[in-house]
């Protein structure tokens, strides 16, 4: 059971990181990015949302490792 939990959690966290930038006050679809979207939409995606999601993922992972060390 424990052997399956770690890969599942990793895949789940990658799925959340992949989906999270598309959700917000202005929902952005994949077709918006691939279909020649407005410059503002591209800027919102790559300059605001993606860095925040990645930083949150890295911060959460680091805090989890710190918690594991002091377990």
Note the beta-strand portion. Answer: under 5%
For the sheet with most strands, the description reads: none
User: What oligomeric state do these chains adopt?
Assistant: single chain
Q: How many helices in DSSP terms? A: 3
What is the 3D shape? elongated
Count the beta strands: 0
Low-confidence stretches: none
Number of structurally distinct domains: 1
H/E element sequence? HHH
Derived structural class: mainly alpha
Q: What is the typical, i.e. mean, pLDDT?
A: 89
Measured as a percent range, the helix fraction is: over 70%
Query: Termini, distance in Å?
Result: 21 Å
Radius of gyration: 16 Å
What does this structure look like?
- 76% of the residues lie in helices and 0% in strands.
- With 71 residues, it is mainly alpha-helical.
- It has one domain (2-69).
- It starts with a helix and ends with a helix.
- The model has no long low-confidence stretch (mean pLDDT 89).
Structure described in brief:
By secondary structure, the chain is mainly alpha-helical. Helix content is 76%, strand content 0%.
Structural key phrases:
71 residues, 3 helices
Element layout with pairings:
Layout: H1 2-19, H2 30-34, H3 39-69
């Amino acid at each position: 059971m424990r052997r399956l939990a770690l890969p599942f959690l990793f895949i789940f966290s990658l799925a959340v990181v992949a989906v999270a930038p598309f959700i917000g006050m202005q929902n952005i679809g994949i077709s918006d990015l691939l279909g020649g979207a407005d410059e503002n939409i591209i800027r919102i995606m790559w300059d605001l949302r993606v860095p925040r999601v990645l930083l949150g993922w890295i911060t959460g992972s680091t805090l989890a490792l710190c918690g594991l060390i002091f377990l």
